[in-house]
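To: structure desk
From: M.T.
Subject: fold request, one chain
Message: Could you run this one when you get a chance? Sequence is below, nothing fancy, just the single chain.
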Amino acid sequence: MGPGFGPPGNPQNAELKKKAQTWLIISAVSFFLCSSCFGIIGGVLCFMAMQAADQGNLTDGENKLKWGKIITIVGFAISLLLGLVFAGIWIAQLVAGTTP
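Reply: Done. Structure tokens follow.
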């Protein structure tokens, strides 16, 4: 077998699968709390990383997990930024409505 491939019982594959499961949960929380489609995309990539780890394809699993993390974090950041912008607009409307 080539580099990045190994038996499914390999400790590196088990560690990759554990990381992918953790990020799958984080992606699901991102989807439900932030209501962004980035959580779904990140979750799908994390699930695919788990499948790659089960098949012993360490390199492919690591790449998919990396992109799953990036997309999930970007989704959190965009949702946080939009939340702050809309909160600022809401506060500005409150202040504008209370000033005589």
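Reply (cont.): The two ends are 76 Å apart (CA to CA). Let me know if you need anything else for the meeting.
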